[in-house]
Amino acid sequence: APPAGGGEAEAPGEERSGGSCCSSERLVINISGLRFETQLRTLSIFPDTLLGDPSRRVRYFDPLRNEYFFDRNRPSFDAILYYYQSGGRLRRPVHVPLDIFLEEIRFYQLGQEAIETFREDEGFIQEEEKPLPQHHFQRQVWLLFEYPESSGPARAIAIVSVLVILISIVIFCLETLPEFRQEPKGPQPGFGEAAPPGDEALLLLPPPPAPSGTPPPLRTAAGAGPFFTDPFFLIETLCIIWFSFELLVRFFACPSKPEFSRNIMNIIDIVAIIPYFITLGTELAQQQQQKQQPGSSSNNGGQQQAMSLAILRVIRLVRVFRIFKLSRHSKGLQILGKTLQASMRELGLLIFFLFIGVILFSSAVYFAETDDPDSLFTSIPDAFWWAVVSMTTVGYGDMYPMTIGGKIVGSLCAIAGVLTIALPVPVIVSNFNYFYHRETDHEEQCQYTHVTCGQQQSPFSEPKKGDSNQSLSKSEFLEAED
Questions:
Q1: Fewest C-beta in 10 Å: which of 14, 171, 297, 420?
Q2: Which residue stretches belong to region Disordered (predicted)?
Q3: pLDDT tens, residue by residue, 444-456
Q4: Whole-angstrom Cα distance, residue 4 to residue 396?
């Protein structure tokens, strides 16, 4: 390097930045005591970076030692210098943690494009930007109902929402208990007529006692009055009022109606409240039909009601999906959902391997047991169930081989099942760890600010306060509020 001048002298090679000899000029970069030497033309490939811009790097020039000094991470600079030498290839050293290397990239101002490329090479899934509404009041309402961490009132609303969801789920389970189900007490009239003996089964409700876990039946049209005064119905109505209010407020306050409609969580919210309105409409229709046609045939009416009951039981079963509403307020469930979404390929391979194993071992055990008169395997499709429970190591014991050949096939089936399930598990666990650490790192970045000597504030972290024509992101708004 050429001799340095006084304390304010220019850095080596920069006084002849337009000359031909400048391209081969060499300069020394000292990284915490470890000296690197490179050519000036190598750094000038990226003039918008810290090392490529003479006006930016001159502040780190030491005229006494005639070198640039950076008190930074030494192992990371090997990759930073190689970024200039290779023309843009950025590879993290194996022994350098990811967060430290990202800090070095930001310090040397390699740019947002280099950061995004590096994150893609590292296997990062780019997090979607979450815009906020432009209108101030609309933005405040959206933050209040969508982001519990934004303020104290938003956290209180989230707690109320969780309590309502839990109450709704508890009611859904409790109303199936035999103690809370109405039992028929002899023949009951249907649509104004006494039911003849033997036709009680055609009455819509109350039916015979259902097995445990079966949704409670609806009341008959004659019992429409008690239906609307039932405590379970009243509590369910209050829960639905809150769910509907929350959904409508979030819909009118959202920054994008199409994006809101395509969101899976909002679809679950809609599906969770639809059964209530269908059930309510059916009850009102039956009550109106009773008033208009009091003398209709109980046989035809009972058949129609029995068909309606079968459909309504399926519809009311959809209420169980309200449990997924908790994922809106649970980071753990959100991480699990992202893990499953990122592991769809591995889960598909798992199902494909299980499918092959089920076909193979069900066929083998059928032909191995076909000569035994006491065989439980009457056909290959009948053996599918045994193969599934054996490969998943459940083993109900309702079907089992009896011959030596069948037991050998069963042993191989269990071993193959263990290996098949164990193969994709490490990939799924790795995806879960990635999303978990990314979430925790994001929370730490929101709580702490890392201040480094000579480091300028990153342009993508500055709040856009003056731009009223663009939608703010959630992080930008929260930083602006702070």
A1: 297
A2: 1-20, 456-482
A3: 655 543 333 344 4
A4: 84
| Neighbouring-strand partners of residue 224 | none
Per residue in 226-280, pLDDT (tens digit) is 667 788 888 989 999 999 999 999 999 888 888 888 888 888 888 888 888 888 8
In total, how many domains does the chain have? 3
Residues 391 and 433 in one domain: yes
Whether residue 301 lies inside any domain: the answer is no
Instruction: Look up the domain containing 80 and give its range.
Output: 26-122
Inside any domain, residue 348: yes
- Paired sense of beta strands 67-70 and 26-31, if any: parallel
> Would 208 be classed as within a structural domain?
no
Number of H helices and E strands in the chain, helices first, is 18, 4
Alpha-carbon distance of 29 to 330, in angstroms, equals: 48
Could you give the angle at which helices 425-447 and 331-342 cross, rounded to 10 degrees? Answer: 140
Phi, psi of 10, deg, nearest 5:
-70, 155
* pTM of the shown model: 0.58
Closest CA to 105 of 86, 132, 81, 136: 81
CATH classification of the domain holding 175: 1.20.120.350
Quickly tell me which residue has 């031909």 as its tokens: 20
